[in-house]
Design a protein that fits this description.
With 129 residues, the chain is an all-alpha fold. Helices cover 80% and strands 0% of the residues.
């Protein structure tokens, strides 16, 4: 992949993160809390993907992205351990919202996770830019 294409993909992933985070507010307003939790995760996922692409890491799975974030960015101190734990916790919440028939998130769950998602995305943007 040439550098110009890499930068375009990184920018596209960051834009996807920003779009997803905006969608959360609309879903929350409509009381679609499980869907909003999933969009929170995908906002962070797109930001994490942008970071990995910007540093030439290649992964094919959500778990692979989490592993590289942990090893290359949390363990090296580029991202805080709290943000690493948050990303894993959010991943688990998304799994629950998508695959567990009896998980029903509430507005309070979004109120807890939304600011942390913003912090995660902002921290990643600082590492990229």
């Amino acid at each position: 992949m040439n550098e110009e294409l890499r930068l375009q993909i990184v920018q596209h992933q960051l834009q996807s993160a920003r779009t997803c985070i905006k969608e959360v507010l609309y879903l929350k307003e409509g009381a679609f809390y499980n869907a909003a939790m999933a969009r929170l995760y995908y906002a962070c996922f797109h930001a994490a993907s942008a970071l990995l692409i910007s540093c030439s890491f290649e992964t094919k799975t959500h778990n692979g992205i989490r592993a590289v974030i942990g090893k290359e960015f949390v363990q090296t101190g580029k991202l805080s351990p709290e943000l690493g734990r948050f990303y894993t916790k959010l991943y688990n919440k998304r799994q629950d919202s998508d695959y567990d028939n009896f998980i029903f998130f509430e507005e309070a769950d979004l109120d807890e996770f939304y600011p942390q998602a913003l912090e995660f995305i902002e921290a990643i943007e600082k590492l990229i830019l």
